[in-house]
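Troubleshooting log. The previous structure file for this entry was overwritten by mistake, so regenerating from the original sequence record. Sequence copied from the archived sheet and checked twice against the printout by T.R.
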Amino acid sequence: MADNSTISLSNNLDIKSSVKDEAPVLTVEQLNSKIKQILEGEIPSVWIKGEISNFKAHSSGHFYFSLKDDKSQISAVMFRGHNSRIRFKVHDGLEVIVKGRISVYEPRGSYQILCETMEPVGAGALQRAFEELKNKLKAEGLFESSRKRKIPSLPQKIVLITSPTGAAVQDMRQIITRRAPYLEVILIPTLVQGEGAAPQIIEAMNKAWKIKDVDVIIVGRGGGSIEDLWAFNDETLARTIVSSPT
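Regenerated output below.
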């Protein structure tokens, strides 16, 4: 019995030894490095849908949270440069779709997703963002009647801030010519749709404030979808309009 056991144990050791000799032995650092190369190389960009949990807005401006479903979760980070474009409130329990890339932190052997964009799940995402901003500004009193100024009964000089090629400016000019041909009209051309529109409108308003004896400033455009009109839902633009001296 003793001899058989010894032979069996010896054979097992020989097998394990041969397996070890055939396979390379990696250090922990080497293994994590290989994992990093594979994950970051094979998944350069990915879209993920999940529920936000453990959300924390750090003093640095970065967002730290987890994305989870009913079976798994992943750590996530959204740096300030990316999350500054978000127009809705991020909180635990919110279901979102994010686009990002996988990042492996070798010293701990952990990985996370670095988020670049984020949108709430559902077709009403923009409407929800609009309602949140409206409620925020309303709570601050920005829509109070006391803030509104009376339109002069007989204005002499007005500024139009709009697209120089859109239908809206033509309509405005036609109505002004028909109803108040004596008006001096100054057009400050600007984008009214798409990326960069809101900052341009704000810049145009700053220019309008420097023009002497302006009675009315009109910021406008034609109709369109909520996406087309989204520049006018910009918080900074709203606050600029409220602070206008005219």
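Confidence is low (pLDDT under 50) at residues 5-10. Archived copy saved in two places this time.
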